[in-house]
Automatic annotation (TrEMBL):
Pfam families in the record: Coprogen_oxidas
PANTHER family: COPROPORPHYRINOGEN III OXIDASE, MITOCHONDRIAL, OXYGEN-DEPENDENT COPROPORPHYRINOGEN-III OXIDASE, MITOCHONDRIAL
GO biological process: protoporphyrinogen IX biosynthetic process
Stated family: Belongs to the aerobic coproporphyrinogen-III oxidase family.
Full protein name: coproporphyrinogen oxidase
Record key words, sorted: Heme biosynthesis, Oxidoreductase, Porphyrin biosynthesis, Signal
GO molecular-function term, one example from the UniProt record: coproporphyrinogen oxidase activity
Entry GO terms, CC: cytoplasm
Pathway entry: Porphyrin-containing compound metabolism; protoporphyrin-IX biosynthesis; protoporphyrinogen-IX from coproporphyrinogen-III (O2 route): step 1/1
């Protein structure tokens, strides 16, 4: 797991809550040279492969957000509320939320593009954690860009899904990257277990991983199982997926291509499942169970997720965006127990004992 401490979370914020926390990177009011250069470049025409990775990642997350939102609007029949924001110091964000939809009870898809200065304390922590040669004499320019989404369907037969992909770089004085890395992942959280859905979701992820490194899927699946775990409940948040951070073990172009591949696979991994389950009949008791499982989702996000905790403790953070991932409704029942042999017990068993849905090499 990532070893960053709370202080180091200035850097980790882009990894876990980039969309929500963009406004907290405020070491000073200095405009980054890179931000000014990129602002000028955007006026000159479309971004190409010869442009800095900053601009290419920005273009990717903006395009991916639009495609996902459009696909979901066509499926649901209702439109997302779009909120945009800009930072004087450099950067912008777009938060798209659909609430009380026909198929989706709540869905949020957000992006952020942030330029700023890492405070000295955060720089020193990163030197310790990453072992990199970063000057600790003063604030260091950085850039972060990411896309994050969480979708909570109405029908308890359809699973909740989470996805996040991000890029972070620390810059030299001339705006070139001194250090960079990518992170991301996608995971599924069902209320009722359909093995074919789990296999489909994991297979799409594995196929994408295998195009770049046959070790990626097994490593990132294990990382996902460990991270999305409710320790106080002794169970996983869902049936997993992939999760990775600090990915810089290959050339930047190759890692960026991998991140684009996985981001572009989101609709292929998730929407077929929703289409299959969205019209299935369900009982009030099944809806209650979904709400109980949503409560467990809330518990993880507020108790264990590092980005959420950091954001809530940070003055000036965009609280609405931080809590975008929470479901519209949830339920907590005192001493709730599932019936032996029931579908609910079947799910609990899998959550307590993670399954390898795809054979690991």
């Amino acid at each position: 797991m990532n070893r960053r401490s709370k202080v180091g979370a200035y850097a980790a914020t882009a990894a876990f809550a980039a969309t929500a926390l963009a406004s907290v990177f405020l070491a000073d009011e200095t405009h980054c040279d890179a931000a000014n250069d990129d602002k000028q470049r955007r006026t000159e025409g479309p971004i190409t492969d010869s442009d800095p990775m900053r601009l290419r990642m920005e273009a990717f997350v903006k395009g991916l957000q639009n495609r996902i939102v459009n696909d979901m609007e066509q499926l649901d029949g209702k439109t997302f509320t779009r909120t945009t924001w800009q930072r004087q110091e450099g950067g912008e964000g777009i938060t798209c939320v659909l609430q009380d939809g026909n198929l989706f009870e709540k869905a949020g898809v957000g992006i952020s593009i942030v330029y700023g200065q890492l405070p000295k304390a955060a720089v020193e922590q990163m030197r310790h954690d990453r072992g990199k040669d970063i000057s600790a004499d003063g604030p260091v320019p950085f850039f972060a860009a990411g896309i994050s989404l969480v979708i909570h369907p109405r029908n308890p037969n359809a699973p909740t899904v989470h996805m996040n992909y991000r890029y972070f770089e620390i810059e030299n004085e001339d705006g070139s990257p001194k250090m960079w890395w990518f992170g991301g992942g996608s995971d599924l959280t069902p209320s009722y277990l359909f093995e074919d859905d789990c296999i489909h979701f994991h297979q799409v992820l594995k196929d994408g991983c295998d195009k770049y490194d046959t070790k990626y899927y097994a490593n990132f699946k294990q990382w996902c199982d460990k991270y999305f775990y409710n320790k106080h409940r002794g169970e996983s948040r869902g049936i997993g997926g992939i999760f990775f951070d600090d990915l810089d073990d290959k050339p930047a172009e190759e890692v960026f291509s991998f991140v684009k591949e996985m981001g572009n696979r989101f609709t292929q991994s998730y929407l077929p499942i929703v289409k299959k389950r969205m019209n299935m009949k369900f009982t009030p008791q099944m809806k209650d169970w979904q709400q109980i499982r949503r409560g467990r989702y809330v518990e993880f996000n507020l108790v264990w997720d590092r980005g959420t905790k950091f954001g809530l403790q940070t003055p000036g953070a965009r609280i609405e965006a931080i809590l975008m991932s929470l479901p519209l409704t949830a339920r907590w029942e005192y001493m709730h127990e599932v019936e032996a042999g029931s579908p609910e017990e079947n799910l609990e068993e899998v959550l307590k004992n993670p399954v390898d849905w795809i054979p690991l090499d």
